[in-house]
Structure formats: structure tokens, C-alpha cells
Queue: 4 jobs
Job 1
Amino acid sequence: MEYSFPHYLLSKQSVDDRALNKDVLESLKVNLPSQPIKIIEVGAGIGTMLRRLLRWNVIRQAEYVLVDEMAENVEYASAWIPQFATEAGLSVERGGQSQLRVFDEAHDVRIRLERADAFDFIQKNKEPADLLIAHAFLDLLPMPESLPKLLSLTKDLAWLTINFDGVTSFEPTADAALEEKIERLYHKTMDTRPTGGDSKSGRHLFGHLQGIGAEILSAGSSDWVVHAVGGKYLEDEKYFLSFILHFFEESLTGYVELNTDAFADWLSERRAQIERCELVYVAHQMDFLVKNRSAG
Ligand SMILES: C[S@@+](CC[C@H](N)C(=O)[O-])C[C@H]1O[C@@H](n2cnc3c(N)ncnc32)[C@H](O)[C@@H]1O
């Protein structure tokens, strides 16, 4: 199988659509200032959240800045955003490689693609947004020190979604002790990455956010739950599951505490379960809507 990160982000869309906490989303809609608004999304990947917010009619008039450090993602976004916008019946104008406008009678969204490290972007950003979005991103960062820097990007709201929170589960389980060990070690790799990360970032965000004076307007679970329906995985979720196992393989191969053969057998059995549409995967995560009280 070929492992492509943009393809993984595409395959994650339907999983995230189900997972996103709808009470927190409702709170976002209620608290969003009247449009036009400025949105900055950090760790934006290929632009799946922009697509979702257009599809869900949350944004209509906006300036939307997508920041991601991976060139492959930004290049993919530059080609893919016009494609999905056109398919949705929107007109598209391009202003160079990094500027797009998607619009119809009800929508006018001016998009800027920034290939940059989020913290370099923070240094040069002049005008804060009305809404900061960080989706499946905060659990990769050093905390709590990253939070005040990120929140400086918004003068009002931050929607902080899909923050991993300490539970990974695969079913069916043949060897509970091995399963527990793989889960524990996988979480440990998140906690010991040199670039930062926290396997319990969801629950820790309550304290971190309160610690910097941000007001939590809404919070709730946004668990990934992936299982076959009618004997088939939905959408491209078979690829999504394969990529999740790829993350496990990349993170844990060669780990001294883990028996190499036992782990190889585990991977191969889990892959066979995907082929048979038997594998059930759950990851516990949390969403937050926050008001930045220190702004202005
Ligand atoms: C798990 S992906 C999520 C992408 C996107 N939010 C989504 O869910 O489709 C995390 C993203 O953060 C980006 N990233 C990681 N560290 C970053 C940094 N310091 N600055 C900007 N982007 C970063 C990666 O390139 C990747 O696209």
C-alpha cells in the first residue's frame, strides 16, 4: 500500500465529520460574530476544515488563512480547494499560487495559503482573526507554552478540535496484555516526541486554558469511532484505518520494550481484520470552544 499524507487527510474527513462535537459546533455558530469575519487555521493540512465549514454552511463571508508547514499539503490544497469548490457549485478565482476566492450569491470566501511553521507565522501576523481553528493539531505541540502564542492569533474565539485524550482501542482483542502494552507504548511515543505532544491533551486543555485566562464556552468529546456498516467501511475509511496502523508501525517498530515478532503478528492480524471489515477502532478526543479574554 502507498502511504500518502494528503490521502490520509482526505480519508479522515468522514471520520471527523461524525466525531466533531455537535454541541461545541452549535456553540461556535451561536458565538460567531456576524460575517464577514477573519479565520486563521493552523496545522490546516489540505483544507478539509474549510471544505467542511462551507458544506455545513457555517462560513459564508470570510477571509480564511490556512497555515501548514508541510509543502506537500499546501500544494495539494492549492489544487484541491478549487476542485471541491467547483464541484459544490461555487465560482473560483485564483490570484497566484497562494490566493483563492470561492464565491456564489451567498458566499464570498477569500483564501490565503501559507506554507509556514505556525510559530513563525505568529511572529509575522499583523491582524488577529475573529476565529482561530486548530483541528487535530494541538496534541502535537509543546504544552502549555504553545497556547498563549497560538491564542494571540485571535481577538475573539478559538475552536480547538480533535485533541487526543488518552484512549485508543482496537476490537476484537485476542491478547489483552499485548493490546494494553501496545496502547501504552504508543501513547508514550506521543508524550516523548522531541517536537512536543501529549497523549492526554484533551483533559489537560481545561487547566492549560484556564491558566492563561481563556474562557471555555463549550467542551465535549469528539471520539473517532470507525466500524463497518453493512459489511463495508464507509467512504474511504478502510484507507484511514490502514494509515492508523501505519502510524503504529512507524512509531513502535524497533521499540525495545516490544517483542518484534509479537508486534509484527499483531500488525498483520489487524490488517487482516481490516480486509475482513472486522476491525473496530475508537480514539477518545475532545473539542473546545474558547473565548480569548486576554485579547485586545
Ligand atoms: C494531524 S494533521 C491535521 C491536518 C488537518 N488539520 C486535518 O485534520 O485535516 C497535523 C498538521 O499539522 C501540520 N503541522 C505540524 N506541525 C506544524 C507547525 N509547527 N506549524 C504548522 N503546521 C504544522 C502538519 O503538517 C499536518 O498537516
Note: The beta strands are 37-42, 61-68, 91-94, 99-103, 108-115, 129-135, 154-171, 215-221, 224-226, 280-291.
Job 2
Amino acid sequence: MKKSVFLGAVTVAGLAAGAAAAATIDDVKARGKLNCGVTTGLVGFAAPDSNGEWKGFDVAVCRAVAAAVLGDPTAVEFVPTTGKTRFTALASGEIDMLARNTTWTFSRDVDLKFEFTGINYYDGQGFMIPKSLGVSSAKELDGATVCIQTGTTTELNLADFFRANNISYEPVPIETNAEAQQQYLAGACDVYTTDASGLAATRATFENPGDHVLLPEIISKEPLGPLVRHGDHEWGDVVRWTLNALIAAEELGVTSANIDEMAAGTNNPEVNRLLGTEGTLGEMLGLDKDWAMRAIKVGGNYGEVFARNIGEETPIGLARGLNAQWTDGGLLYAPPFR
Ligand SMILES: N[C@@H](CCC(=O)N[C@@H](CS)C(=O)NCC(=O)O)C(=O)O
């Protein structure tokens, strides 16, 4: 088991070294389309709607980048990836970036040779159980069968948690969230464990969400964010600062409702630099002066994107929590636009 994981990592790292030679920003511009890796479907984060149009919190990052670089938020080819296939897709060049509930870890950065360009959701791993199981703490799960998505951080966290608490479990390995949902609802596993946001998103699609509970334990740190290949610095900058533009826009009070007015010039120099009425930040990125304005216009600032896709007014119902701005006691903190 250990050996195959190790060999998998080497193969992916080898591919990354080869593909990183090309400048992705030039490829994307020449192609006129962004190839963005997303999940195979997790409503609220990335999933096609009834018209086949991809929607969600991670999808919004892809569309913002496409708007910044190509001037068109619809110029995106969404490439579904599983926990297992996502890294090969990025390393091989099949996708230009990955925006898929992916945790920034040491080994993915250093060993697999990717570059995380920020964090769009601070998360942690949780457990969902049917209420009827009558369990109120993950520590009471001794002997449980647990649905667990392969190729994810959640596999190792699960093993660590059970070992540390001296309890045992039987893993039921699954490949996609859809499969997990199906197995869990069919009773093939007592528990589903993954990122808490993913559990909330999955539960929201159940016929009777109220029959299922999330246990209080959060057993890991899962900082989720977009990533590119190592060594692809210009492209990494574009993705990093597009995400930062959405976050800064919220902090600076730039919204989809007032952005046109603000783009005419304000008395806040940072807003002016962000929206391109002062300075040359867009040019430094290899883009034009309106890049950030276009990115923000797609779905609004970070807070608007959050509220529309996964926030408390949606069936998923996530509170801002750690994902509030630093000015509101959260962890979101975009570096300065200067
Ligand atoms: N954040 C963890 C877990 C990511 C993960 O695969 N999450 C699942 C459940 S939230 C998911 O996004 N599934 C969507 C799919 O199967 O395509 C990681 O990076 O390994």
C-alpha cells in the first residue's frame, strides 16, 4: 500500500517537472479558453445545473480567472476530476489550474511539485452519521464502517484520529462524492467522513437532510485553494491575484452593485489601483488595467460568491466562520494591492 502511494507521487512529480516548462498564461491566451479542473460534482462548490452550466464556489474562481485573462467568464472548459485523478490532470497539462476542494499540504506543494495560489476556503474534516445511529461524538465510533474518498487527505487523517483514540474502523473506499452519497444512504457505511463543507453540501442534497447529523469533532486543518504547476510563476501570479482581488474587493466594499460607479474613480487609492483607474497593476500581471474589475463583475466579491453558492441563505447553509474577513474576526486577509 505504502509503496504504490510512493510510486504514484513520483510519477506525478515527474510529469510536473516536464509540463512546467511551458508558460501557461501564453497557452491560455492562445487557446482562448481556460481548462479548469473541478470536482466530478459537489453542489455548491462545483456541479452542472439543470442546463448543464457549471455553478459553484470553486467554479467561480475558474470563471473569475477566465474573465481576468480572456475577458469572458464563459471561456472555460470544466474538467471533472476525482480525488485520485486531479493531480495527474494538472501535472500532465490537461488542465491549467485546479479549483477543487483541494487541501494545501506540504507534500502536494513540495513533493508533487504544485503551487497553491491561496486559500478560498478554510475547512477541516468532519463526520456525518444518520441520526438513528444515536452517536454524539466521533470517539464513540469504535468498529464503525466509514466511507472515505481515496486519494484524499481524509484517508490519513481518519487513520490518525482512530489510532490516537485507540479505536478501530473499517474503511469503505469510494472514488467520488456521488458514490459516497449513494453508499452512505444505502447503509454500506455507518459514517461518511470528508471536509466539513463537503459534508454540508452533500447533506443538503438528501431527501431528508434532517435525518443526518454532523458530529462535533473537526479532526484536521483543510485549507482549500486553487493550484497550478510549480515553476509556472506568471500564471501562478494571475490565479493568486485574481483570488486576492475577490477577497480585497469585499474588504474594500466593492460589490457587483457598486463596481461600475467605483470604477469611475474613488477617493480610496487602493480601490483605484484594484480597479485600474490608478497605477499599472494589470500590466505587471501581463493583463490589461480592467482585469480585476472583470473578475469581480462575474459573481461579485468573495462575500457575494460565498453567500450565493454556499452561504447561510442557501440549502448548504455554511456560516462564514474562519472564512470571514480578518476585519470581522476571520482568516481572510488579502495582501495589499500596491
Ligand atoms: N480536501 C481533501 C478532500 C477533497 C475531496 O475529494 N473532497 C470530496 C468530498 S467534499 C469531493 O470534493 N468530492 C467531489 C468529487 O467526488 O468529485 C483533499 O484535498 O484531499
Note: Residues 20 and 231 are 6 Å apart (CA to CA).
Job 3
Amino acid sequence: MKNPYRPMLTTIEKITIENEARDLKTFRLAFSNGSEANGFRYRCGQFAELTVFGVGECPIGIASSPMEEGILEFTVKRYPDGLVTNALHNCRLGDSIGVRGPLGNSFPMERLEGSDIVVIGGGFAFTTLRSTIRYMLHETNRAKFGKLTLVCGARNPGELLYKDELKQWEARQDIETHITVDEGDEHWKGLQGFVPAILEQVAPSPEGAIALVCGPPIMLKYTFPVLTKLGFQPSEVVTSLEMRMKCGIGLCGRCNIGSKYICRDGPVFTYEELQALPPEL
Ligand SMILES: Cc1cc2nc3c(=O)[nH]c(=O)nc-3n(C[C@H](O)[C@H](O)[C@H](O)COP(=O)(O)OP(=O)(O)OC[C@H]3O[C@@H](n4cnc5c(N)ncnc54)[C@H](O)[C@@H]3O)c2cc1C
Ligand code: FES
């Protein structure tokens, strides 16, 4: 039987520095073993445990889209005192990284088909939403979804993730984008304001729509009431939790809230499911 704790070997193929503070990097990894590469079939919203050998491992959401055969990307925020995230940021092209996964449940892509989708993201939690947007915009998938609306933000223009991609999405006719920063600078010509406030101004219709929301806890706290005010039912709001984990496969008991293991039963939950959990978040 395959050991679920044994990471698969990958090599760093590309590193993109995402922000001015240089504490957000996207790593493109290539599997060393062809059959492991073929076996790594993931869905939008899943995560993997990334290992820096000799240091440790940590859970990171998959930022690439399952539609892009052979491409596997993760965007990692370096915590000043973070063991693994610092070690990852010190890695260079060609270094070996371990990958365990794909883990967790996923965004309910089949259930989303036929609906209008409102994607709401903030800060570096935008990673799995990027995967989802790329999936929905893919030429073989776009017709399966209704109107796509994106409201996303960051603290300032330099902190926006995937800047080139945001520009490409802004230029498209088949996704409506509202990109905002808490505080602009002399070059910023876009929206300014917190994500929940911009969402309230944009006021997407809840009719036949589902909202996908990922962001820092403070953004989620103010976004859920706005969605409720706009008329979205808690069952039509989907989010992803990023809490501390260890094994990532439902065995160690480190990530439970009530009877749910976030690593195994999540990290994706509807707002309705979250409301039914004990208030430990
Ligand atoms: C399902 C899931 C998906 C994730 N996706 C991403 C992602 O796409 N990109 C990304 O950069 N990060 C993501 N994270 C968070 C990431 O796992 C943590 O940043 C990482 O574990 C920190 O490891 P470390 O060894 O560097 O820090 P540690 O040495 O373990 O801790 C350093 C500091 O960070 C704090 N910390 C560590 N983990 C968390 C956490 N989960 N929540 C709050 N504080 C924490 C600690 O309290 C401590 O102060 C995800 C987490 C989960 C559970
Ligand atoms: S991290 Fe071990 S049970 Fe979830």
C-alpha cells in the first residue's frame, strides 16, 4: 500500500516574484517521475503538502488550473518567522521539493455549471480562486458557466497577485472585473476601497448565482453580511478555510472543528455549513 506520508519528488521549474515586498512567490513544479505526474489529478480548491527536505512541510493551495496539463503552481507567502515558507522562498530553480497530495475536497465545479458566478478574493488567499477562474475561462469550459464577476483586492497596488493575468482578464468581454486596493498610489487609476464595500457597490444579482469567497478572516467577516444583504442564501456562498494543519489527511486530529476535519471534510465549505460548526474559528 502507498505510504500517504511519502512526498513525491518535484523540481522547481520557474519562480515568479509576485509583489513589491517580495514575500509572495509563485513556484512552478515539475514531477521527477512521469507516472507520478500522470497520477496527480487535482480539482480546483484542493491543496498539497509541500516539503522542503530537512526542514518540514506545510499545506498550500493549488494555484494552477486542472485544465493546464503538466503545469503545477503554488503561490507562497513567506511568514517572517515561518520555518517552511522561509525555506521555500530560499529555494532556487532546479531545487527539489516534495509534494503530497492532492488533498482535501474542492470547489463544487459541476454544481456551479449553469449558474452566474461571483468570485470574491482578497490578499494571498486568492490562489485557489485563480485556479478556479482559469478553469472557468478555459475555452472548453466557458460556455458551461453564466456571467462571471470578479471582485478582488489587496492592500495596495504592489500587493495585487497575478498582475499580468488581472490585466488580461480586464481586457476580456466574458468576465466582469472589479479590482480594488485599500490604498492607491500616484499611478493607481482603479478602484479604491475594501473588498466588501466594492462588492456592495457592484451589487451582483443573487438570482441563479453562486458566490465563491476566499480572503483573510477580516475580509470574510465583512463580506458574508454583504452577500446576505444582497440576497445570497448561505447555501449559495462557498468559501475555503486556511487553518493550521499537520497530516492533511484526516489522521492526526489537529485541524478539527466539532466533528469536521478541515483537511479532509474541507477546506471548502458553504457558508451554511460554516454556520452549523461550533464557533471556534
Ligand atoms: C488548506 C490550506 C491552504 C493554504 N494555502 C496557502 C497558499 O496558497 N499560500 C500560502 O502562502 N499559504 C497557504 N496556507 C497557509 C500556509 O499553510 C501557512 O502559511 C504555512 O503552514 C506556514 O508554515 P511555516 O512553516 O512557514 O510557518 P510556521 O513556522 O509553522 O509558523 C510561522 C508563523 O505563522 C503562523 N501560521 C502558520 N500557519 C498559519 C495558518 N494556517 N494560519 C494562521 N497563522 C499561521 C504561526 O502561528 C506563526 O506565527 C494554506 C493553509 C491551508 C490550511
Ligand atoms: S491535519 Fe491531521 S487531521 Fe487534519
Note: Residues 47, 58-61, 75-77, 79, 81-85, 124, 127, 242-245, 267 surround flavin-adenine dinucleotide (ligand 1) (CB under 6 Å).
Job 4
Amino acid sequence: MVIGTIADTITRSVESVTDTLTSPFTEPVIRLGVTGLARAGKTVFITSLVANLLDRGRMPQLVAEAEGRILAAYLQPQPDDTMPRFDYETHLGALTAHVPHWPDSTRAVSQLRLSLKLRPTGLLAGVSGARNIHLDIVDYPGEWLLDLRLMDKSYTEWAEETLARIATRPGGADYVAMARAEDSARRFEEPRAKALAAQYTEALHMARNAGFSDCTPGRFLLPGEKEGSPALTFAPLPRIDQPPRQSLWREMERRFEAYKAQIVKPFFRDHFSRIDRQVVLVDALGAIHSGPAAMEDLRRTMAEILGAFRPGGNAFLSQLLRGRRVEKILFAATKADHLHHAQHGRLTAIMEALTRDARDRARFAGAETGAMAIAALRATVEQSLPHNGRQLDCVRGTLLQDDGTRGREAAFYPGELPEDPGRLLGPARDGAERWLDGDYAIMRFAPAALTLKPGEGPPHIRLDRAAQFLFGDRL
Ligand SMILES: Nc1nc2c(ncn2[C@@H]2O[C@H](COP(=O)(O)OP(=O)(O)OP(=O)(O)O)[C@@H](O)[C@H]2O)c(=O)[nH]1
Ligand SMILES: [Mg+2]
């Protein structure tokens, strides 16, 4: 145990040295973490950000660009040889194809290095040449942060909590019944473990499809190459008195510990602990559309995820970070192009309220935080239409629903978000079944076909402000 800790600490400090000393002349590196729950918009965000940093015609709010100090931007081979590269070209290809489409789901960590050449400022302006700064962008699933709380938990604690939480969710009752019927003091047999893990994973999938985001262990939903390994084949079982050796219960406990040590810990050690700036993307509109239960679940999940940015509360993480912290965190409500800009302020207010607790705590831990409504890739245009004697602020785009309307152009009114976010968060917290004030609809739009002028990146909403907040101060 102690040996493991020491080894980790050493690796970390060596890494931080290589981080800042990529060249003999210390070219600075900013590690920007991009996270969010599944389908929050991470891939689109990174793709559009990179495209808009390479061609900066639509980035007037990035101060260094407005001041003409960015001389060049280019992609570089990334420094971490074993980390998958973010597949920028393929994702951009999808978004800018003749018939554009959204990129495929990506569910593992990946990274890309973008380097900027900048004109020096201040005292050095006249005497020194251009300086370089490297932006290492790291894409990782927010679900992985949920696993942090497993680290300080025993199998018994995790299992009890999980069984209680999922009991009322879709698919949950079936699993809980199965787990309670299991005689887990019996000798371990792989087929039982497999059946329980499969049923539990099924319950997680059903919960997620119903809009619940708090589904641990984070790797069960998309296990990738580790699928079927023992560390991913366990499930929560009710506590039993003095579980015998070699029993099913004991083996489940052992696998839970293996999951923590061999899957969760390396991620936090190798990736999370090195992040300087972080953007957390949140599909708040999607949750509002799904209803109060999904909204409340999102709020709780965000608080849980964001616990990772307040390491004081977690012994495992404090030890790993040793005082290092994320300097800035941006909470961005994505896909704001589903709303007319008249409603963007309201979406931002909802976002602020939704992440309130988490932001207060992150700030307390020393990070600067911000909240914003953005669209990494604008798929709509605005349109006002007369309706029942008044003008409705709509957005117009190409539909992407599987209901026969696919490919059609349509104007769409999503409903009016309340000015006071409490009107959504209150009922959500109180367990309301549906919104009282109205229905909030969401359409799926295809990305718009693009004709970009030279020097222009893809259209977006406030991506330049997001970039300025996240790393503008370092340029
Ligand atoms: N209208 C609009 N839709 C968006 C935007 N960004 C993302 N989307 C939608 O959200 C979906 C998910 O976006 P991704 O960027 O793939 O999300 P992700 O977080 O990388 O998803 P996973 O890789 O599955 O975790 C897309 O397929 C689009 O339908 C945006 O800026 N505008
Ligand atoms: Mg992705």
C-alpha cells in the first residue's frame, strides 16, 4: 500500500517536470481537459475549437486574436506516446462533408496538441522573437469522474448505496430482486458472476436511456477493450454476515477492489491529475426536455462529478494531486443553437443554478469558475414567426429525427425557459412528475452544410468567449 503510494508520487513529479520542460527552453504547456456526460458534445466541441483556432476568422472575443498577436497555429504530434490521438481530421470530415453528419460516439480518453506561435508582449516585445505555447486538449468521459467516489468506499458501502439508489429506476427493481435472491455465501462460480454483472449492466443501460446519468461503475456502459475481464465482471450484492472464503460475495468484493486499483486509479494518476484548465459540457436542454427527474439526476450527478475538482474531500485524490489544482473551470451549457438568442441568458442562469454548489466548492478550492451557454457548432439559424397574434422566436434547421421528417427543413419553437431557474430546479428537487409551466421540446438537427470563406472556422455560438475564459490569459 505504502509502496504503491510512493511510486505514484514519483511518477507524478517526473511527469510534471516533463510537462513544463518539453523543450530545453521551457515552452509552456496548457493541459485543457474537456469532459461531460455521454453525448454532452465533447467531440464536437474539440473539433470546432481546433478548427476555429487554426482559422480564427470567427474568434473575435479571443483577445490575443483580436490584438493580432497570434501569428500561427498548427497541430503537432502529441507528447504522450501511449495515449490515443483525438481523431480531429475524421471528426471534422464528418461535420464538413457534402452531406454533413455528427461524429460517432467516442468513449475513451484521447488527446491532441495544438501549438500557437505568439508575438511577445510587454517589456520583451521589442527584443525577443515569437514565443510558442502548446495547448494539449484531453477528451475524457465525465462518467469516469463518478468513479472517484468508489475509491474511498468499501465494496459493502458501495453495494448498499447502489442497491438503494437503483431500486426505483427503470430496470433497477429486476436487478435488486435478482441480487437479493442470490445466495452469495455459496462457492463462487463464474457463470453466476457473469449473469449478475450482465443484469446489472442492463439496469444501468435502462437507467441511462431513461435520462439518469448517475450510473457507476463508469466503465460498465462502454467497457471497450476491457470488456469481459474480471475487473469489469462484478455487481452489487447485499451485505452478508461473515462471507466465507471463496464465496461469490468475496470474489465480487475482490473484483471491485481490482476495478478501483487497475482501472480507476491509473486514469486519475495519468490523466486527471495533470489538467490545468477544464471545461465541463452539460446538455442542460436535453435534461430539461426529459423532465424533472432527469434534471434532478443531472444536478446531483454534476455535483458528484465536480467533487473531483475539490480534492480535499477525497483522500485518494488529495494524495495524488499534492496541492496541484485546476486553475479554471468553465461550465458550459451546450447546443444553445436549439434556442433563439433571446433565451440564452435564461439558459446560462439555469446552468449557473444547476452547478451552484459545485462552483462554490471549486472556487473555495482555489479555482476560477464560469458558466456560459454555447454551441460548438451552430446547426440552426434564427427566425421569428407570427403565431396567435404574437411573434415567436424560433430556430430553423435540418431535422434529424427518425420519424419520417428526417432531412426536412423546419422552424421550431422549443418553449420558453423560465426567467427564474428555481421554477425548474425546485420541482425537480421535489420530485415532480412533469413540468407544470410548459413543455420543453427538443429537436435533433443535422449540422448545416458549410461554405466557409478562407480563414473562417465553422460557425459557433460563444466558442471564442469560452476559449478566452479557458486559456486567453496565457496567450
Ligand atoms: N445543435 C447542436 N448539436 C450538437 C452540438 N454539439 C453536439 N451536438 C449534438 O450532440 C451529439 C453528441 O455530440 P458529441 O460531440 O459526439 O458528444 P460527446 O460528448 O463526444 O459524446 P460521446 O463521445 O458519445 O460521449 C451530436 O451528435 C449532436 O447531435 C452543437 O453545438 N449544436
Ligand atoms: Mg465523443
Note: DSSP finds 17 helices and ten strands in the chain.
